[in-house]
Amino acid sequence: MPAEFRKAIGLEHGGDVVIELDGRDIRIRTVDETVARAQELTRRLLAGKPEASLDAFLQERHREAEQE
């Protein structure tokens, strides 16, 4: 990746990236940006659902697995 591109996305000293194909476009994002986007999406999807948590999800999955 050219130095000017790395600098533009804050990777002038290197770092991990996430690369995705969107149709014919290639998107390159930093891992931090990708995590922040995922967290924001999660906040929006779970807004108004205080009972929703990772612990509750894992407990439900565990119960489902025991029933199989």
Give an overview of the whole structure.
Residues 1-33 form the SpoVT-AbrB domain. Keywords: DNA-binding. This is SpoVT-AbrB domain-containing protein. By secondary structure, the protein is α+β, with helices and mostly antiparallel strands. The chain has one domain. Helices cover 53% and strands 18% of the residues. It has three helices and two strands. A hairpin with a 2-residue loop joins β1 (17-22) and β2.
Mean pLDDT: 86
Strand order of the largest sheet: 1-2
- Terminal Cα span: 48 Å
Strand content: 15-25%
Low-confidence stretches: none
What is the domain tally? 1
What would you call the structural class? Answer: alpha+beta
Shape: elongated
Biggest sheet architecture: 2 strands, antiparallel
Kindly provide the radius of gyration, computed on alpha-carbon positions and rounded to a whole number of angstroms: 18 Å
Q: What letter string, H or E per element, gives the SSE order?
A: HEEHH
Query: Into which percent range does the helicity of residues fall?
Result: 40-55%
Protein name: SpoVT-AbrB domain-containing protein
Keywords: DNA-binding
Organism: Nitrococcus mobilis Nb-231
GO molecular function, one term: DNA binding
